[in-house]
Amino acid sequence: MIDMVVPELGEFSLILALCLSVLLAIVPLVGASRGNVLWMNFARPLSKGMFLFTLFSFICLSWSFLYNDFSVAYVASNSNSALPWYYRMSAVWGGHEGSLLLWALILAAWTLAVAVKSRNLPQDIISRVLAVMGWISVGFYLFILFTSSPFERHLPAFPQEGADLNPLLQDFGLIVHPPMLYMGYVGFAVSFAFAIAALLSGRLDAAWARWSRPWTSVAWAFLTLGIALGSWWAYYELGWGGWWFWDPVENASLMPWLVGTALIHSLAVTEKRGVFKSWTVLLAIFAFSLSLLGTFLVRSGVLTSVHAFASDPERGLFILVMLAIVIGGSLLLYALRAGQMRSESSFGLLSRESLLLVNNVLLVVSCAMVLLGTIYPLIVDALGMGKLSVGPPYFNALFVPLGAILVVFMGIGVISRWKQMQLSMLVQQLWLPGVVALVLGVGSTWLFAAELKPWVTLGLVLAWWVVLSGLRDLYNRLRHRREKLAGLLKQTRSYYGMVLAHLGVAVLVVGVALVSIYSEQRDLRMQPGDSISFRDYTFIYDGNRHVEGPNYTSDQGQIRVLLNGEPYTEMHPEKRLYTARGNVMTEAAIDPGFTRDLYVALGEPLENGAWAVRVQYKPYVRWLWLGGLLMTFGGLLAASDPRYRKRRAMAAA
Amino acid sequence: MTPKRKQRLLIVMFIVVGVSVAVGLTLFALNQNINLFYSPTQIAAGEAPQDTRIRAGGMVVDGSVKRDPDSLFVQFDITDYDKTVTVEYTGILPDLFREGQGIVAQGSINEKGVLNAVEVLAKHDENYMPPEVAEALAKAGKMPQPEGQEFNK
Questions:
Q1: Inter-chain contact A376–B149, Cβ cutoff 8 Å?
Q2: Distance (Å, rounded) from C-alpha A277 to C-alpha A290?
Q3: What are phi and psi of B18, to 5 degrees?
């Protein structure tokens, strides 16, 4: 009998989580301001309770999906009994309501992680951090319960069968992409909470930056992974082989990433040198605000995008109000407290500090530019000046040069010294990597295509520049050591994290340059027996075969591929009809490779058994995501540096 | 004015000039790359500029889709139930493209008033309608009533 009320249990559990979050938002904060240890001590148990109740609520919803309880409206519109069990599980976050519940769960999980992993932080700081997390949680629980509860029932006449999950989302990419992305988005809530706690307590010092750093790095790593996964998913699932569309929702995830990247660099300066404090706090506030703005853009349906949900304006209004409270409140607090911040040291015009400042300025400017392009249509529409959209050329025209300058400075920044350094020394160290990068860059471009296209050459030169200046830095570190190998092992995890992440940028740049310029695509009409050749490959179309899937039927194209005339492989692109919704879906066939992908997708059936077929050759496309993975590992490695734990242990002792 | 103040003023002026130049260039780039949306009624009334990249949207008229037997050329009409515009496109149409579906096309209007599309967008949600199309339909007073959520299809 108990299983009849599982959705209600889920809802009650969520209400209890809300109650706990309200307590968490108030009690420790009051305790911290009054110095009441008992009240402050409530922070950790309340965080744990909040997590447990949210988890239980999430399990209840998953249960309803697993056992096909179509009396729950959200389950009925996003699942189907013919759906395999793993897609029924991932369907939990396949729609608006459930993905918000996932968001709340991840927020609670981060809160729990902060509560458990920060044993050695001062009591008043940790209570304030957890209280701020509590405030954010209150906002999201209210949002879910009032505007988008996933537990609402269709009673008494509920459907016998569900409307099925959107076929685009029946895919491994959907299982992993949203949780990773949310881990990143929500992770910036932790950086935000640390910043607000520091402002509240007035203790903005190097210790604060050190506490905040590993959390920010982890959040950044997850966001990077989430974006990379999203790009990969779009590439193979949408059927046209694109990996970045400057779609508003992609921009919404890119903006916090850019500011977050600025933040992890700025935190490094604050920790090591005690400067940039107010700037760092501001970045932490903006990184989280942009995460919320991203949520608003996705959830309110104000923008045309592949992610647009059919949604109601009430939700958009709620998030807009929440956004106003978060930004307004935190900036007010900032304005009141920023005056008290003092730099602990100074730095010269040419120093690592000022180079990192350049990095920050470039990243923030890129973000502002993306923001402008993303919300410009909204502003124009709100002013009643017509409907418009901003095309990819705008973003490319501004983002590519800014990115190129950023990468140039990346090479210089790695070599530079803190506090003050001589230009002559910089030149003396960098001229060789610069010249070699130029030679190797031009050489590899020529080797690749026997021609020098400006953007490709620039991309490859920049990639070599990053690698070589990194090597020069490593050489500097090992020069005075007798045992080179031992010296290598002596370097910190933070250092190797940085190296990996920067290497990721170089790999990404190579991928972007080559796949943007040298991709080839043919859209053509193919009858059985037709073939097309390009590069070294010949694609022969042998007609279609009918295939039955668990919840779809499919026309599967049979395409033989020859490499230099020899049989190479067979590819089977599909056109699927998902019967529950009557949706047609393209399932591209991809032959992946380290240096190139072959990509075949079916268009639509034409007369006389012919099909529209899209054949693509994508050089180095995997390098895009490889770069993303390297950055992710870099971030995680840097965050795992034992230094963060050791110092804390010392502080406690 | 003390030399220190003078120096500060100079820095401030540099920043102001720098920011203005940056903003100016950005807005210029933005203006070069915006695509205005026009409804079929506006296009029929000649409001849309010729040979400029625009976006147009509406419902695909039933029975208007004509394909060339030898290539991927396709021609169809879109309507806001007041006026219709012919769209020509060569390439692969999106999965959800079908007659009666709301779509957005990007391209330019030629001298015959035909939209030469370079991109046709249909969204991957059958209940979803691009906001521009919905508004154009509402303006023409032809917004189809939603059927409500359907199950057991």
A1: no
A2: 20
A3: -60, -45
Chain A residue with CA closest to B32: the answer is A394
At B77, which helix (H) or strand (E)? strand B73-79
Q: Which residues of B touch A373 (CB under 8 A)?
A: 30
In whole angstroms, what is the distance from residue A55 CA to residue A58 CA?
5
A523 with B32: Cβ contact below 8 A: no
CB contact under 8 A, A310 and B127: yes
A562 burial type by CB count under 10 A (0-12 exposed, 13-18 middle, 19+ buried): middle
Q: Please state the domain extents for chain B.
A: 1-33, 37-122
Cβ pair A25, A46 in contact under 8 A: no
Q: Identify the H or E element spanning A215.
A: helix A206-237
Query: Residue A151: which pLDDT band, with cuts at 50, 70 and 90?
Result: very high
Query: What pLDDT, on the 0 to 100 scale, is given for residue A310?
Result: 47
Residue A652 has pLDDT above 50, yes or no: no
State whether the Cα torsion A533-A535-A538-A539 is positive or negative. Answer: negative
Residue found under tokens 């968001």: A103
φ/ψ of residue A118, rounded to 5: -125, 45
- Annotated binding-site residues of B for heme read 124, 128
Inter-chain CB proximity A239 and B95 less than 8 Å: yes
Of A160, A604, A613, A616, which to mutate for an interface test with B (greatest number of B Cβ within 10 Å)?
A604
- Nearest chain A residue to B23, by CA: A369
Q: What's the CA gap between A203 and A223, in Å, rounded?
A: 28
Question: A373: nearest CA in chain B?
Answer: B30
The verdict on B71 touching A (C-beta cutoff 8 Å) is yes
Q: Does B55 touch chain A (CB under 8 A)?
A: yes
Cα gap A590→B140, rounded to integer Å: 44
Query: DSSP secondary-structure letter at A153?
Result: B
How is residue A581 written in tokens? 């919704």
Q: For residues A298 and A458, what is the distance between their CA atoms, to the nearest angstrom?
A: 35
10-residue mean pLDDT profile of chain B (153 residues): values are 73 82 82 82 85 85 86 89 89 82 86 88 60 69 48 31
Of the candidates B141, B147, B142, the residue with the CA atom closest to the CA atom of residue B127 = B147
- Evaluate whether A351 touches A416 at the Cβ level (below 8 Å): yes
The pLDDT of residue B1 is: 60
- Smallest CA–CA distance from A603 into chain B, residue: B92
Neighbouring residues of A489: CB distance < 8 A, sequence distance ≥ 6: none
Pair A520, A534: CB distance under 8 Å: yes
Q: What is the maximum alpha-carbon separation in chain B?
A: 81
Q: Is it true that the peptide bond before A156 is cis, omega within 30 degrees of 0?
A: yes
SS3 A535: coil
List, in sequence order, every beta strand (DSSP E) within A172-251: none
The hierarchical CATH code for the domain B37-122 is 2.40.50.140
User: Which residues does chain B have within 8 Å of residue A606's beta carbon, measured at their own beta carbons?
Assistant: 67, 69
Cα A14 to Cα A610: distance, rounded to the nearest angstrom = 54
B127 φ/ψ angles, rounded to the nearest 5 degrees: -90, -5
